[in-house]
Amino acid sequence: MKILAFDTCFDGCSVCVAELRDNSVVALSSRMERFETGHAERLIPMIGETMEEARVAFGDLDRIAVTVGPGTFTGTRIGIAAARSLALATSAPTVGVSSLAVMAEVAGRTIDAEMLAVVTDARRGEVYAQLFSGRGGRNAYSEPLLLPIDDAARLGGRGAIVFVGSGAAAVAEAAVRHGRAARAALPDLLPDAVALASIAAGLEASDAPLAPFYLRPPDAKPQDKAIARV
């Protein structure tokens, strides 16, 4: 099985071409770049470069995997639109995965913890949060949530916990104030397409259209009144 996986949910872009061999996912080529804007301009060239380096043709793909959120509205839409287009062009089925699960998969490979929570800054004193076992993103204890920092600090009860992601420092500080054994790690953590491919290989693919997973309505709203023409 050959998999094309990519993420554009947060402040970066990650692409991987991987192959399932004897129940192990092997990355044939991968790239990750960090930036706050420019996902639309960079994603397709990165996919082309990664496919070329992996020496895999688009017609050989068996699966396309993408993160479906939570994340920025623009970034999430860009990734899903690209996955839909490529699926239409190649007839490869798609798999959508939580961006937080992918981040937990990355963190679980480097952090020794019984309980792990991915918490990314959603601004307005809130974080996108999801609770996992320390083994990674395939062992979720909660759904992805949008929570105030104090509520995120209470995820999983009062047991020891490690918070990872851009909101980790603030949430861990709040947890310690509540008397909890907590620490922050990996503040620069982003979804990695290599981890995404690893998760996607074990999921059922679907021909159904991918849909973005948003935890907050968009800031931009349609106007209530029509603007009069001059």
Automatic annotation (TrEMBL):
Keywords: Acyltransferase, Iron, Metal-binding, Transferase, tRNA processing. Transmembrane segments: none annotated. InterPro entries: ATPase_NBD, Gcp-like_dom, KAE1/TsaD, T6A_TsaB. Gene3D superfamilies: 3.30.420.40. GO terms for cellular component: cytosol. Signal peptide: none annotated. It catalyses: L-threonylcarbamoyladenylate + adenosine(37) in tRNA = N(6)-L-threonylcarbamoyladenosine(37) in tRNA + AMP + H(+). GO terms for molecular function: metal ion binding; tRNA N(6)-L-threonylcarbamoyladenine synthase activity. This is N(6)-L-threonylcarbamoyladenine synthase. It comes from Hyphomicrobium album. The gene is tsaB.
